[in-house]
Structure formats: C-alpha cells, structure tokens
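SAMPLE LOG
Freezer: B-3
Tube label: C17
Construct: single chain, 67 aa
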Amino acid sequence: MTQSTLLDPHVWAHPDTWSAAIDNTAARRTSSSRRGGGFWIFAAVCCIGVIALVLGIVYLMTNRRRR
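STRUCTURE (predicted):
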C-alpha cells in the first residue's frame, strides 16, 4: 500500500509533483556531466603518460645505438 499514492491522479495533477520531478531530472543531468568531466581528465593524463613512455623508449634506443 506504500505505492498507492503513485496511482492517485490528484497527486500527479499537483504542480509541486511536476516541479520536484523537473528538479530531480536537472540534478541528475548536472551530476552526470560532472562525472563525465572527470573521466576525460583521467583519459588525458593516461594519454600523456603513454606518449611520454613511448618518447622515453625511443630516446633510450637511440642513445644505445650511438654507444
């Protein structure tokens, strides 16, 4: 019986119900975009690390050949 208010049309017709739903949707969109930004920062750091590793290996290989 805890879900009986979800079936009541008077609850869904009330403006507070709609404004709360809009607020929840906006908060969900904002929080998901923040999480996505953190992913791209992590991906950029990993990409820079891989590039530095490759350049380091190339540098060490060229120095070995010169000796």
